[in-house]
Each structure stands twice: as structure tokens, then as C-alpha cells.
Design a protein that fits this description.
Layout: E1 6-9, E2 22-26, H1 31-36, H2 47-55, H3 63-72, E3 75-79, E4 81-86, E5 95-99, H4 103-108, E6 113-117, H5 119-128, E7 135-137, H6 149-160
Parallel strand pairs: 2-3, 2-6, 6-7
Antiparallel strand pairs: 1-4, 4-5
Helix pairs in contact: 2-6
């Protein structure tokens, strides 16, 4: 794994449609997600297990199943960052950020709430995204070992459930 900074540009688009009611934002796709060209591609990331539990669905396996799960449940998914310098998948290394224009989603859908997946995404959202307030959720990353899958799911359910 490289320990040097790499300039990375987000190369896959957001998941949303006009029926989306909730927007969930991460920071920047991990190395594995960038390789797969879709969100939360690392098998240890708990995002898909948490979301599936919150909406009462089976855990999706394929990108098409993941996209369908989000749209069926009126959840939009994107990242705060369009491009940045980063070491591997380390959020703490992120610098030289260009933020995504979340207005693209906010104007196309009737978003009732914006959530950010983890503290770094929240910090970046506050700095680079205009036009909305966001609710911080604990990160689903395996690096967030302080939060068990059960505890994450309970917290995400209590917050997202208000808008689903």
C-alpha cells in the first residue's frame, strides 16, 4: 500500500432520482470503491449491512442491487469530495479538496435531510458544501472500531427512520 499522496478525482456519479428524500454523503471513495467504481466497496465497511437493516432488506451484493436498494428506499448517495490529494483510503490524509456540487441533487429531488457518514465527511461538508445543513452519523468504516455493527445500526435507524 502506497504511503504517498495521490491526486484522486471521483469518477462515478451520485445515486439519486426525483423521488429521493434522504441524501447520505461520504468523504471520498476508498481505494477498493474506486476500483469497483461504486460506493462502499470494501467488504469490511459496514455501510450496506447497516442500510439494509435500517430499511428491512437483504444485503445487496451487486452494484445494481445496491443502486436499486437506495432508489427503492428514496435514499440518495454521493460524496462530499469531487477531487483531493489522499494517501490510500485514509480520510485523515485528505488535503487540497474540491467539493462536489450537492446542489445537483438538492434541486432535482425533494431532499428532507442530509446525513454524513463520519466526522471527516462532516468536517469537509461544513467547509465545502453550501445550501444545506447536515446530520452527523457515526462512520461505517472498519476504522471506527468503537462502534459495533449493532450500535451503528441502532444509531442510523434512529436518525434515518425519522425521514423514511
Amino acid at each position: 500500500m502506497s504511503r504517498e499522496y495521490e491526486h484522486v478525482t471521483h469518477t462515478f456519479g451520485p445515486v439519486f432520482d426525483e423521488n429521493s428524500k434522504i441524501l447520505i454523503l461520504g468523504s471520498m471513495p476508498s481505494v477498493r470503491s474506486r476500483q469497483q467504481q461504486f460506493y462502499y466497496g470494501h467488504p469490511q465497511n459496514r455501510f450496506w449491512r447497516v442500510i439494509s437493516s435500517v430499511v428491512g432488506a437483504d444485503v445487496p451484493e451487486t452494484i445494481d442491487e445496491k443502486r436499486e436498494l437506495m432508489l427503492k428506499n428514496h435514499i440518495a448517495l454521493w460524496d462530499v469530495i469531487e477531487s483531493c490529494d489522499i494517501v490510500g483510503s485514509s480520510d485523515s490524509s485528505i488535503k487540497n479538496v474540491k467539493g462536489n456540487d450537492i446542489g445537483v441533487i438538492l434541486t432535482a429531488a425533494d431532499i428532507k435531510a442530509v446525513f454524513v457518514n463520519g466526522r471527516k465527511a462532516y468536517e469537509l461538508f461544513t467547509k465545502y458544501c453550501q445550501g444545506a445543513a447536515a446530520i452527523l452519523l457515526p462512520s461505517t468504516s472498519p476504522a471506527n472500531a468503537a462502534w459495533s455493527l449493532e450500535r451503528l445500526t441502532e444509531k442510523w435507524q434512529s436518525e434515518l427512520g425519522k425521514f423514511l
